[in-house]
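note to self: the first set is below, dont mix up w the second
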Amino acid sequence: MAKILIVEDEYAALNSLATLLKEEGYEALKAADGEQGLASALSEEPDVVLLDIRLPKLDGLTVLQRMRQGYNDAAVIVMTADTTSSNAIKATQYGAFDYIAKPINFDHLLLLLTRALEYRNLEREVRTLRSGQTAAKTYPAMVGHSPAMQEVYKLIGRVAPTDTTVCVFGESGTGKELVVNAIHEYSRRPQGPLVKVNCAAIPEALLEAELFGHEKGAFTSAVSRRIGRFEQANEGTLFLDEVAELTLPLQAKLLRAVQEKTIERLGSNQPIETNFRLIVATAQDLDDAVAAGRFREELFYRLSVVRICLPPLRERREDIPLLVQRFLSRSEKPVTIQQDALDRIIAHDWPGNVRELENVIARAIAIAPGGVITADCIEFSRRHTPAEAGWVGQIPHHEGFKRTIRMVEAELLRSALAEAEGNKLRAAALLGIQRRLLYEKMRDHGLR
């Protein structure tokens, strides 16, 4: 019988989980605070620990760290209502098997327990993610509690302490550079340089010298020796953005540098060793590029050791309110946003992703009357209007049925009132409803 330790300070939740686990055939142990949980984990040697993050006496992350320092190899599933990127990365980095968001979905929890027990039985000694990593302080934290972003946080936590090459995929504006910053700051070499190169922004004729450097006299304008980005990244991280833009000859030189960790400056045949960790990013589908002959297959395999795929904003609409609040908090003046404005933002398809959202919010803050952002303050780029994209494509399917219907209803009311120039009788007639119902709906949605 597998032994499960539950560390939870909410009495009802603690007993509810214990009852569930006993019904499923597990032996359930209980602890109501961090100190008691740590003592039980070290003395009782459970197979799995269900660990809350917010605990009295000792918080969950501290308990997790001290468990690992005490050579406890239980699989740990972190339970938290605060699924921020920092907590998610740290929990995984400190050795958590997985984590689950509150309120707990029992079916999901039972599935995680099955996987955790299999993991423990097969790889009890695999504890490579150590505690004590330097917290990331030099980059704006990623925002998002959606399942897709939780998977991103987990991958960052697992891959950061290694020197494995990482390829970050994602549409423009999804935040690929934030992922790179996080991997570097949580890596074994956070004190080393993080050198960034946008391969699409540097002319082809200059890119080779930019990457590999050159000796004096290597070409007409080479009046002195130049140290390239590979050498600059020694003992640190080299980030090549838009790597798919490299020409085939440059791809061949990159392949050699990755394989041998040596480079040669232009105008020299002297190999130079450099110890760098490579991260690349692209918005293109590299599989298609390989099939079309635009990207070397052997380089593709070298760069795609670990893939981190960032979801577009339209596939994680539940994160939009969090992002909006983040951008509002940067305002120099107090500003609030009305629900109808937020509903309109959530309903947009965001082809420019988080970058487009940030620009829209910046404009809204600038023109908001009295520091209150209304739906009229929200303006999208003309090339991304709902009429051009098709109104069905604007429906936020990920928000759930009731919230989706509410947002569509609010847009219908605004559209009818605008067409009727504010005449409520005409607006009701356009919608085919009674004027009394129109008034009720307007009050419900806060429309004037």
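second set (the one i keep forgetting abt)
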Amino acid sequence: MTAPDWQAEIEAAARRIAGRVRVTPCLELAWQGRPLCLKLEYLQVSGTFKARGAFNRLLAAQVPDAGVAAASGGNHGIAVALAARELGLPAHVFVPEPTPQAKRDRLAALGAQVHRGGRDYAEALAACDAFRAATGALESHAYDHADTLAGQGTVAREWQAQTPDLDTVLVAVGGGGLIGGIAAWYAGRVRVVAVESEGCPTLQRALDAGAPVDIAVGGLASDSLGARRVGSLMFPIAQRHVAGSVLVSDEAIRQAQAILWSQARIPAEPGGAAAFAALLAGAYRPQPDERVGVLVCGANLDPALLAGGTTP
């Protein structure tokens, strides 16, 4: 099969979703004596970057009367539910048991029918696949579909226009749709570094093995970064254009959440704070003259964690 022309696919996605998603801002900070660019994708309409891929998937497809079905740890489902509501489509979202209550509540508020069950994302995906086979609903895969990956790639297209002098970007990884789209857009012009939690080293294991492999996942960020296996579409992109993967501990992620909130009032969820945690913990150490960008990719956390000005 011929590989997609990802640059063209991302350009088409950007045109398709224009006006449906936000152009998210960049924040310039001084970090350890050097400038640091934060791309504030947590301000996206769904609270995460996932809205880009969800809107692109639904706008690029002929959606049947049965609507759309998605499996998700929460964030992709929220994005699909939002896009479906905006487009007047039924949405069914399958979530595993560990999905936080705040995310399940948001799904319901957006009008999705929430199907809860399974220990992890993979089991929720199996239930979703069975539902689609029975009903004919459109699949909206969280990361392993060309429309989804191209939609997520619009983050990099936008970031490049806003901050064209970046040398390196740090991007959190779950199933890999986000970093796949970003790496496909930059295509070696900017160094792309994956950041994974120690409990979910899915891309690192795949790169070590030379192919996507199944792993056990867990830890603080598993609701958003907890894919057992990276996507088949993103993996060849990662082999060519991702500089490697660094791992961060749950404690480093907690500290990153706390600092982002206390210093910049950024309410990042664990997966959204993981890329910053790589700098904080020294998992990634920039060169003295290296211009670094960090993607803050999500903020769908329990609002109670911020009550009274407390840190996550």
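remember for set 2: Residues 25 and 79 are 19 Å apart (CA to CA).
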